[in-house]
Amino acid sequence: MDLPTFPTYQPYPGSGPLRENLDVSLANLRGILSDHGRDMVYAYVMTSVETKDGAFLQCGCGPNFQGGEITICTCMAQMRTFGNVKPGVWVSGFTSVDGTSKGNGLFYLTQIHDSAVSQYDLWNKLPPGVRMAKAAHLDPYGDVFEPTVSFENPGDLAAFDTGNYKRPIKGHVHATERHPNRWHFDVDYVGRQTGRRQAFLVGDSTMTFIWTRPLIYFNGSPGERHPPSKKRDIRGLLEVLATLP
């Protein structure tokens, strides 16, 4: 039987809060976040977003915005080992410096709503419809792995054994011919600097914003060309954002 063919990028949300919050203007974003100025936010540059014909294409699996919720489980693994990356904190992803005519374009911003200690924990926390929409054994951009065994403790060491999960579908972006086992890090990763295991993050769908095209860019100081992969508060982030002409 022939395998199904897939698009070469993640489709954008078609309904629900994620759809309603697509392409929010910077002015509206500032209004929405007016009460969150002191909240911590981590910014980082994504390598999986391409700009083509005036649109952003998410060609990777992290973040994943299928099933009506955004999950951050297969990108920025080192950042996700930080102890203060937890519910209430925000995460923002930018394109490369070539993503817009002015530099790094804002691709997404989300407030963490929940966190799981393992893929096993994550699978059991997500509603059935959501986890199936994100399942790596069904979709080449899936970031959630279905366990094949049960554990009493979601943090059991066996929960980080890739042999206890369904393998990703053929053609998965983290199981290519060149790097067939890259997906192992999506199940088991310990930070080199922190010595902590990665957390698997779920964003608040009502506080998630995704941009499908270049609208907002990082407008830092001349010596700060890229959004730093470090924490700042929402107020500080908004101060270094600008609208494209």
Query: How would you describe the oligomerization state of the chains in this entry?
Result: single chain
Order of helices and strands: HHEEEEEEHHHEEEHE
The residue ranges in which pLDDT falls below 50 over 5 or more consecutive positions are 1-5
Mean model confidence by pLDDT? 93
- Spatial gap, N to C terminus: 50 Å
Overall number of structural domains: 1
Q: What percent of residues adopt helix (DSSP H or I)?
A: 10-25%
Number of strands: 10
Radius of gyration: 18 Å
Number of helices: 6
Structural class: alpha+beta
Biggest sheet descriptor:
6 strands, mixed
Q: What is the beta-strand fraction?
A: 15-25%
Order of strands, widest sheet: 4-7-6-5-1-9
Shape: globular
Please outline what is shown here.
The chain is α+β, with helices and mostly antiparallel strands and 245 residues long. The protein contains 6 helices and 10 strands, in the order ααββββββαααβββαβ.
